[in-house]
UniProtKB/TrEMBL annotation:
Protein name listed in UniProt: Novel STAND NTPase 1 domain-containing protein
Organism per entry: Paenibacillus silvae
Domain Novel STAND NTPase: 14-193
InterPro entries, per database record: nSTAND1, P-loop_NTPase
Pfam families to which the protein is assigned, alphabetical: nSTAND1
Amino acid sequence: MGNGSEAQKETYVRDGKRFVARTRELMLLKQWFEHAEAPMTIFLVTGMGGIGKSSLLSEMLSVSRDRGATAIWMDGRSCGTTPSVFMDYFLSTLGLELELLGREAAHPLSLLKETSKKRRLVIAVDNYEELALLESWFMEVFIGKLHLSGVLIILASRPELAATWRTHPRLYQRLVHMPLQHFTADEITEYIAIAGRLKPNVAGTITRMTDGHPLGLALAVEAADRGRNLPYAEWAELSHMISARLLLELTIPRLHPMVEVLTLLESANQELLSAVLDMDVQQEEYHMLRRMSFIRSAPDGLALHDMARVHLMRDFRQREPHRMQAMRIRIAELLKPLHEQAGPHERRQIARKMLMLCQESMLQFRKYADVSNDSLFSPLEPMDRADLPSLHKLMEQWSEYSVEPWQAVNYGPFLDELAQRYPDGIVLKRDKRGEVIAMFITVLVHRETSELLLTYFPNEMNECFDPEELGQDPDESDTHFAVLAAARNDVPGYTREELVGYMILDRLSLLGDGARAILVATNPHLKLFLRSIGFQMRETTTRACDHYENRADVLELDLRSGQFGAWVMSLLHPGLPVNPSQAGKQASGHHMNIWTEQEVRKMLGQLHSPGELQKYADKLAGVKGGIQVQLYVLDLLEGRIHGVAPQDQKLLHAAYWTHAGNPTAAAQACSMSRATFYRHLGKALSRLARIL
């Protein structure tokens, strides 16, 4: 179909982007607008990363506005995890749209009351899978309050919607499923034809090799537009993996620093790009960025396509880890005062940006959670009732190594009742065949859910909460109680620790809105990991929650009182206090994180003797004992903890581990003369000192 209407052609000219295909989807939108009664309808757009979900939403919103409807775009990643946060975001987005349209309203909610077949409202939610914890409320309360005519809801999600949508007595008849596929050969030809200037042989190559993957096709055509002479192998990979090298080649050199900022930030506007780079980003440059096929417009600026961002991040980390970390810190320092001064909605947006900066800094201890694997993980999905047998099997395996037999009997019935009453609390990860391989259970604590939790876990609840907290109103709840993280240990290509690590990484993003996480833990490695990222630990008052010889403790991270920025900076700068009250204690021990090149050289010289490394433990945050020092340093030198450049890893590992005491062999292993080896080794030691 392409730009079949005049409105769509105008959109193409205005945005400078090609839009083709998706004939069925746009026809269904047209039919809804032509329907005299305009019944409430829910479009569900699904498909893999890069398939064009966000582009279709953008096109549908443009068409809707051309039809005279009020149309708003929301990002599920910014919608929060509580109803009050979602409503703040929704109302602020709606209010902004009304202002742009020049329509005055005493309150945006008044528009909802006026919605009808003549005054239509289109609500698009991108990345809807991020609303897993709010799904029941979204279905029953939010949609339930909307008019039954004049409202169109468009949800874009990578995974399919939960089965509860298809079986819902009121909503299933209003659901229109739109699974997006790769472009057909005709659609590829149409897309290429719009470019207009491609040679027939190049167009043929693109048609054959991109397999119709929309993002790969966009990048291939853009490369051809610029006259790039790409190797045949590069074209062959475009339909499966976004090459960081190709993305950088497609970008005009002076735009490289701006792309690097977008790699580290979820989104950025012209002002923020200028502040981070300490230079004026011109309107022309910003416009050029916006037209790149791997960059999309977001409500608060520009953003990289998710798949492109993953590959660029990996490329940046391998090339210049030190500059990457320095840029992270600079961005966080710029965002921290903005976060503290912003209003509620904007503060949540900034908080997410800050959280994204420090995710890699969070997970250093690999015995419980490991995120060293660079695979592209899909977001966690809400559970489906059909998943319960798999979830029970997973829970049984978890119970064998996590709780005592008398404690384990409660978990099965709890899972059944939670799945029935509050399924939003259960999220899971699947493999490529759709089988459940991991799950994470958190419960938003309020007077309704606390009744359930007290029934099955009275000891844990009494250790974590007082009666007033358990009786809190659902709309005011801001505390997540973490029940468990369970994963299989037989998944090809991934360890259990890697699966758990990525689930924790995903769930920590819930705290970006200013919330609290609390749990009872017995696993010593879990305690070490949580304390290393700022969780406070206190002893339980009884021994009822212990696991055999492992003592139970309560761990809590409370970011409700304006300490989010300090927490982020403490992750980027290990050793910085999260609470201002800790500053005095830190000042008296300020020397603990200062390393000289001579100290690093001496410490590495004793790397084979853990007993000699004991004296360095106090200088490394979260590390205790000589063996942990040895393991931590080896993780750095062998790349399991990011930060040391690959060449420095090879030099230091050869000099102080594989060929310790034999500089000639170490130099040969690095293919260098001894003089060159010593020169580079000195620089590597200096850089490692700065990292430590």
